[in-house]
Design brief:
The complex is a heterotrimer of chains A (296), B (258) and C (300). Chain A is mainly alpha-helical and 296 residues long. In chain A, 75% of the residues lie in helices and 4% in strands. Chain A contains 11 helices and 4 strands, in the order H-H-H-H-E-E-E-H-H-H-H-E-H-H-H. Chain B is 39% helix and 23% strand. In chain B, the strands form 2 sheets. A 6-stranded mixed β-sheet of chain B has the order 6-7-8-3-9-10, with helices on both faces. Classes of the chains: A mainly alpha (296), B alpha/beta (258), C mainly alpha (300). Chains in contact: A-B, A-C, B-C.
């Protein structure tokens, strides 16, 4: 590797963009919860992968078909998201951000340890979808599994946006994220709305977790922290609380990550992704879509 | 001494301050008044460097201040107080003044180590004097958060004075004060002016403004609508309209001053 | 006996780690990257004694200075953001350092064997104390000399104007700026000091453990670092020491019988503690500063 080859680079960026859709989903999940509560749910990526593990169990033990695997993953992660809300956010005073942060870090370790304990810490193979399908596009090829991942992520995002912008539920969620006191005065049950946000984010995360596992081919507890960190980076680069930002940043991180992989190899790849965050902190600290306007 | 030219601030679509021109001469007490949301606090925050201006310039003693962070403006001689008192609540009264000794004299006079890790006798004496002036001499070791409201106002006033300002911006210092406390405040302001500090007083309380200021600028909806002596301003038609609101409803709402 | 001395050493080292977070927390900044500075101190000092065959003292000080230097560098971009954004930035920094050492391979022959950091396999031959015949007691004393030096220095700093300025920034940044305090300078200085202290801790850790690898320096370690001052409060450095003794000496040791399950219980304990006593673990003054440290940050 290392030679600059235009076709290869384009291929690399393309593959990365497709895979980046999973980061976008994770980023959207973080950003949704941040938007709703102004808090980071550190359990999120761990819960997403936890969901994927449950999906994997469905595949392994009852040989469930692909679609069911993803549904099970999403549902399981949604349930974990709800539990995370109950344990790490619901009963902690709303303005005590530190306690919520610490509790959710505790939740992250807890989920991670449960996974390590049940799998003995060893990586498990995750079924790939449409692995042998390849679309030709001139000199470029589109991997069937990545295209599938991308399509599912688009569908999931579209579903989320539909719920957020076309349903009463979504209206309440957006009201709470914009002005929670006013929302409360309008009779919106903030706790219920927040719980719904966590479940929505969880469903999304479960899909993302299963997609990540499907694209990589394995599930391992070693992925948890890197996925958490990448999700956070996507959230920050996109601008905290911005869904379009998370999408753009997710795709960007996916593409650049693949470029780094191409030039520097798998071991160094993530280092450059992390540096990317610092580049943003220097030149655009509020993210792509974040606004620097603040006035108290 | 202070010269604002075309000073403008927009928050998103809200025009909080529009092309404000204002010159403050050395040694006076200038009032800056206007109804709620007229841009008074925005003006203070722009002069201090808390906000970046959308357009216009701030000159202080002939030096362009645009782009300088607040601490540099303080060292140039611009100090302020806050509308909603902002002390360091968990520091003692004494420490609140101690951390504020950041004037160029303080920095150049003391060596690095004693300045940061010790106290010079002079620094201690100056703090004692400030406490004395603020009638807080016996409260030096109290936490600032334990002070009564009026005491907190006096401490914040003293903390601003601890930086040896040439220009002091007072942001509604009389808010929430009793008549007696306002009289006392008026005397403190005059005393400070007499010691050579120029004062820009942003205030709602007309009694205080009319009582102590020599010149007054009136803002409404981010525009300066009048400038003159208290007497002139009081008889100005535009000012009366702004305050009584005959014309105000037609101009539409402007951004609230924070 | 040596087992308990090992525990005493560990408590000392973790106290340094906690104090490195303490300094930063005084200014209202929450860093989840202290494990990174700890790692830099550990690897640098290890490389200096193993590859450059320096004595422990200069190696330790240089290692701490290298950690401080990186804290200084990271300080500028990281401190442009506040609150949760800073938490994310520092997590990213810590992971960056971990990955760097994951990739670092620098093997040189010494006395017939290859020594030095060996990427995934870790850095195994940090045997300065063994090679020089230090007893466990001597090592323990050596560790605690640094712990006490740092604690005394911080205690003294806390009572000086510098300490008051740090706390002023932690309490109200806008007011601090308005009385002429240079926020960037204060925060970067606190960050640098924190990096230096974590670096000392890391250097001591590498030499007492004789072996480090990238998995030592995870987000878990960084979480420990901030847990100590959170539990012990920001009133004084003693709180951090007490918290380390409680967590490492009582909790971690006491839960040892759980074996594999200990880590699971640990996560649950954090959740339970935060639910039952969200701010009762520390004093009111600490609570107020820390709540802000983890908030959105935009509100200052």
């Amino acid at each position: 590797m290392g030679d600059f080859d235009f076709v290869y680079i384009t291929q690399t960026v393309g593959d990365g963009l497709l895979f980046g859709s999973t980061y976008a989903l994770i980023g959207i999940g973080f950003t949704l919860i941040f938007g709703a509560m102004g808090k980071l749910n550190m359990t999120y990526a761990a819960a997403s992968l936890g969901g994927a593990y449950v999906g994997l169990a469905a595949f392994t033990f009852v040989n469930a078909p692909a679609l069911v695997v993803f549904l099970v993953s999403a549902l399981a992660s949604g349930i974990v998201g709800f539990i995370a809300y109950l344990t790490c956010f619901r009963f902690i005073p709303i303005h005590n951000h530190l306690a919520a942060l610490m509790a959710s870090i505790g939740g992250l370790f807890f989920i991670d340890e449960i996974v390590i304990h049940t799998t003995d810490g060893s990586p498990l193979t995750f079924p790939a979808m449409f692995e042998d399908v390849m679309f030709e596009l001139g000199p470029l090829g589109i991997r069937g599994d990545l295209l599938f991942v991308f399509a599912v992520c688009i569908a999931a995002t579209a579903g989320l946006l539909f719920v957020l912008y076309r349903s009463r539920l979504g209206l309440a969620t957006r009201a709470v994220s914009q002005q929670d006191v006013a929302a409360r005065l309008c009779g919106i049950d903030v706790h219920r709305t927040n719980a719904v946000t966590f479940v929505l984010a969880g469903l999304l995360g479960g899909i993302a977790g299963a997609m990540t596992a499907a694209a990589v081919g394995v599930l391992s507890p070693l992925i948890t922290i890197p996925l958490t960190v990448k999700g956070l980076i996507v959230t920050v680069i996109g601008g905290l609380g911005s869904i379009p930002g998370a999408i753009v940043a997710g795709l960007m991180v996916g593409a650049l990550e693949n470029v780094f992989l191409y030039f520097r190899g798998v071991n160094e790849r993530d280092m450059y992704v992390l540096l990317l965050l610092f580049v943003f902190l220097v030149f655009r600290p509020h993210g792509i879509f974040g606004s620097a306007i603040s006035r108290d | 001494m202070l010269e604002l030219q075309g000073l403008t601030k927009h928050f998103g679509g809200v025009k909080a301050l529009n092309e404000l021109d204002l010159t403050v001469e050395e040694g006076g007490i200038i009032g800056l008044i206007g109804p709620n949301g007229s841009g008074k606090s925005t003006a203070i925050n722009l002069i201090c460097g808390v906000y970046g201006e959308t357009a216009g310039t701030v000159h202080f003693r002939g030096v362009l201040m645009n782009g300088k962070p607040p601490h540099q403006r303080l060292r140039a001689g611009i100090a302020r107080t806050f509308q909603n008192i902002r002390l360091f609540p968990e520091l003692t009264v004494w420490q609140n003044l101690w951390v504020a000794q950041n004037s160029p004299q303080d920095i150049s006079r003391q060596r690095f180590l004693p300045r940061w890790f010790g106290t010079t006798r002079q620094a201690r004496k100056e703090i004692a004097d400030l406490l004395e002036l603020a009638d807080l001499a016996h409260k030096g070791d109290e936490l600032a958060s334990n002070l009564a409201f009026g005491e907190q106002r006096r401490l914040e006033f003293a903390r601003a004075a601890a930086a040896r300002p040439l220009l002091l911006l007072l942001d509604e210092p009389a808010a929430g004060m009793s008549r007696q406390e306002i009289d006392d405040l008026g005397q403190r302001i005059r005393r400070l002016r007499d010691s050579g500090v120029t004062i820009l007083l942003v205030e709602h309380m007309m009694e205080l403004v009319m009582g102590v200021t020599e010149q007054i600028a009136v803002l409404n909806f981010g525009h300066r609508i009048a400038f003159g002596t208290p007497g002139e301003v009081q008889s100005d038609r535009a000012v009366q309209e702004a305050y009584l609101g005959t014309d105000a409803t037609e101009s539409g709402p402007a951004g609230g001053s924070a | 006996m040596s087992y308990y001395l090992g525990l005493v050493q560990l408590i000392g080292i973790h106290t340094l780690l906690g104090l490195s977070a303490y300094v930063l927390m005084l200014t209202g900044q929450l860093s989840l990257g202290q494990a990174g500075f700890f790692a830099i101190g550990a690897y640098s000092a290890g490389i200096l004694t193993v590859i450059f065959e320096l004595p422990i003292l200069p190696a330790l000080l240089v290692g701490a200075c290298i950690a401080a230097f990186f804290a200084f560098l990271v300080g500028f971009p990281a401190l442009r953001v506040k609150g949760l954004m800073l938490v994310v930035a520092t997590i990213a920094f810590g992971e960056f350092v971990r990955l760097f050492f994951f990739n670092l391979s620098w093997r040189v022959p010494r006395d017939g064997i290859e020594v030095g950091p060996d990427s995934t396999n870790g850095f195994r031959e940090i045997r300065y104390f063994v090679a020089n015949g230090w007893s466990a007691w001597e090592i323990t004393t050596f560790v605690w000399v640094f712990v006490i030096l740092v604690m005394v220095a911080l205690w003294w700093m806390d009572r000086s104007r510098a300490g008051a300025v740090l706390r002023a920034v932690g309490e109200d940044e806008l007011a601090a700026q308005s009385v002429g305090i240079n926020l960037t300078a204060v925060k970067v200085t606190a960050m640098t000091a924190g990096g230096f202290i974590a670096g000392i801790g890391g250097a001591l850790y590498a030499h007492t453990a004789t072996y480090v690898d990238h998995l030592t320096f995870t987000v878990l370690l960084a979480t420990f670092a901030i847990s100590y001052p959170i539990l012990g409060g920001l009133s004084s450095v003693i709180g951090t020491l007490v918290a380390v003794i409680f967590i490492q000496g009582v909790l971690v040791e006491g839960l040892r019988f759980l074996g594999d399950w200990r880590n699971i219980v640990f996560g649950l304990l954090i959740i339970a503690a935060m639910n039952l006593k969200p701010s009762g673990l520390f004093d009111a003054r600490t609570a107020r500063i820390l709540k802000r440290a983890a908030s959105l940050g935009r509100r200052g």
